[in-house]
């Protein structure tokens, strides 16, 4: 980054510090990961210069022969990885992918059934300030009070009552396996489309560690930067008969020129996700999440739904005299990064919350295993037991530094940044 350092030392410094932060802290945000050097190379390449409105072979600009090659590879690999009939790899993000499906499948004002934000749904699933909530009639479904899991009978009853044109499955804070077959049956019973948003679990789906929605749903959307460990972006998979409608909804419907550097990076992501080592990684993500859940529950923390089948878990802090907001902020001071999160039937606001969401994809990428998860559970407990104790804070911070130091991240980038 010698050019950057010279021309814009402030941004250079921010990037250097962010690289250090990622290396020094323990990243437990369930939606984050550390992408590979190969993907960083592709995304910072000259492909960012190219305008390529349209699709491979049918562009509105000249000089697209090499970006066409990248996009074709990206599409083929996405289809192969998820066994999909059609893939659109142009959405800039998960929200854009959802927006394109809404506009392709529905008319303004149509009814959609989607998971309530407070139960773990996503903003793009009907939040009132989001396009989805503003332009569509979104009826929320929640979770069972008893199991804190999806209640398929309730979803069926709501579907029969509201006759939605589309039912949306998937969320941002749901730790359990989703039964896509049951969703399919409900959709068939009321004649609704099924959209599965697998943003969080795409890496697990790609490696067969979570049942795939692809054979069952008309539309599947995902991000590429969560468990999939690619660049920050989105993808839509759909049945062949919706291919044209989806492509038109993305461009010219909601986007202009695709980010060709990101599409190249997504192609690399899918290639790497097809390798055997990626499945080993995903298996360890699951093992680590289970270990972390067990270790925390042994220390007296209630885990929502009594555990996890995925890469994430929700910790209920009710009775700990600490909101999710305060817990996340003291943990951050000890260099442990987590999200505050609502728990099912939370009595607190989304700003305060009674819970924490923890995920293992990022730390597993660093090479951490069960032993480290146990250690991290102890560190979290030490902090949360004495949130205002400065001595505890200092000692946990020291332990975090030692632990992170044993699993270095982007070591050569750091060396390079400091050298220039
Ligand atoms: C993260 C997420 C998204 C959107 O991701 P962005 O890329 O931030 O727009 C969409 N749906 C779900 C369920 C998610 O968890």
Protein model, in words:
A seven-stranded mixed beta sheet has the order 4-10-9-8-7-5-6, sandwiched between helices. Helix content is 47%, strand content 13%. Helix 3 packs antiparallel against helix 11, helix 5 packs across helix 10 and helix 7 (152-162) runs parallel beside helix 8. The chain is of the alpha/beta class. A hairpin with an 8-residue loop joins strand 11 (302-303) and strand 12. It folds into two domains: 40-273, 3-Layer(aba) Sandwich (Aspartate Aminotransferase, domain 2), CATH 3.40.640; 277-419, Aspartate Aminotransferase, domain 1, CATH 3.90.1150.10. The chain has helices spanning 2-7, 9-24, 37-43, 65-82, 94-105, 131-135, 152-162, 180-190, 202-206, 243-254, 260-273, 276-298, 324-333, 361-365, 370-385, 390-406, 411-419; strands at residues 26-27, 54-55, 58-59, 86-88, 111-115, 137-141, 166-169, 193-197, 219-223, 234-238, 302-303, 312-316, 336-337, 339-341, 355-359. The termini are close together. Pyridoxal-5'-phosphate is lined by residues 31, 93-95, 122, 124, 170-172, 197, 199-200, 223, 234.
Task: Please describe the topology of this protein.
Elements: H1 2-7, H2 9-24, E1 26-27, H3 37-43, E2 54-55, E3 58-59, H4 65-82, E4 86-88, H5 94-105, E5 111-115, H6 131-135, E6 137-141, H7 152-162, E7 166-169, H8 180-190, E8 193-197, H9 202-206, E9 219-223, E10 234-238, H10 243-254, H11 260-273, H12 276-298, E11 302-303, E12 312-316, H13 324-333, E13 336-337, E14 339-341, E15 355-359, H14 361-365, H15 370-385, H16 390-406, H17 411-419
Helix pairs in contact: 2-17, 3-11, 4-11, 5-10, 7-8, 12-15, 15-16
The structure holds pyridoxal-5'-phosphate (PLP).
């Amino acid at each position: 980054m010698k050019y950057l350092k010279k021309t814009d030392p402030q941004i250079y410094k921010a990037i250097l510090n962010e690289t250090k932060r990622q290396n020094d802290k323990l990243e437990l945000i369930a939606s984050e990961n550390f992408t590979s050097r190969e993907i960083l190379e592709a995304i910072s390449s000259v492909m960012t210069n190219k305008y390529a409105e349209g699709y491979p072979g049918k562009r509105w600009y000249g000089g697209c022969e090499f970006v066409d090659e990248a996009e074709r590879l990206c599409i083929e690999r996405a289809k192969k990885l998820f066994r999909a009939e059609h893939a659109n790899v142009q959405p800039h993000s998960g929200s854009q992918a959802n927006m394109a499906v809404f506009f392709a499948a529905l008319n303004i004002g149509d009814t959609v059934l989607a998971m309530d934000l407070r139960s773990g749904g996503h903003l793009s699933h009907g939040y009132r300030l989001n396009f989805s909530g503003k332009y569509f009639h979104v009826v929320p479904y929640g979770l069972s009070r008893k199991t804190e899991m999806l209640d398929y009978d309730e979803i069926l009853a709501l579907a029969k009552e509201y006759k939605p044109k589309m039912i949306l499955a998937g969320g941002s804070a749901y730790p359990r396996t989703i039964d896509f077959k049951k969703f399919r049956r409900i959709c068939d019973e009321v004649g609704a489309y099924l959209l599965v948003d697998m943003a969080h679990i795409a890496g697990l789906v790609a490696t067969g560690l979570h049942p795939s929605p692809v054979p069952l749903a008309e539309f599947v959307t995902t991000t590429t930067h969560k468990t999939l460990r690619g660049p920050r972006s989105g993808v839509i998979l759909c049945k062949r008969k919706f291919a044209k409608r989806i492509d038109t909804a993305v461009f010219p419907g909601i986007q202009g020129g695709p980010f060709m550097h990101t599409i190249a990076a997504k192609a690399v992501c899918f290639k790497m996700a097809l390798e055997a080592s990626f499945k080993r990684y995903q298996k360890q993500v699951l093992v680590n999440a289970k270990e972390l859940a067990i270790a925390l529950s042994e220390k007296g923390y209630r885990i929502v739904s009594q555990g996890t089948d995925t890469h994430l878990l929700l910790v209920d802090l009710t009775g700990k005299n600490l909101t999710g907001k305060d817990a996340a902020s003291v943990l951050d001071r000890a260099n442990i990064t987590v999200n505050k999160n609502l728990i099912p039937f939370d009595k607190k606001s989304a700003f305060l919350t009674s819970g924490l969401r923890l995920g293992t994809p990022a730390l597993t990428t660093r090479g951490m295993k069960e032993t480290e998860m146990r250690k991290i559970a102890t560190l979290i407990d030490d902090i949360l037991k004495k949130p205002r104790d400065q001595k505890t804070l200092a000692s946990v911070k020291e332990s975090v530094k030692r632990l992170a130091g044993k699993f270095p991240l982007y070591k050569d980038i750091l060396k390079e940044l400091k050298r220039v």
